[in-house]
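I am still getting used to backbone structure tokens and would like to learn alongside you. Would you supply a protein for us yourself, any chain you care to pick? Start from the sequence, derive the backbone structure tokens from it, and show both lines together. Go ahead whenever you are ready, and we will take it from there.
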Amino acid sequence: GRLQFDPTPAVAQVEIHVDPQEQVSALISKLGDPDYSVRNAAVAALQRQPTVALPLLRAAREKAGPDQRWWIDAAIQQIEENISTNKKP
């Protein structure tokens, strides 16, 4: 027999549920990356999720080495500055 092909394109919908805490934890671990651009991108991404990021950053700071702690402090400072700037009328 011959195969019949349906020329109609298939459409698939995929829902991806990302756990914000897992995502933030992964970003925090990138703050110890040897590549500056990876660390910088992680700080920028953490700023987009301030409510999840701040408590996790503070907790990670307790266990971080000096280099990673510097980046954690930088991320916390950026997030806090953004929050205070956004609160002003």
User: Anything to note?
Assistant: The first helix runs from residue 20 to 30.
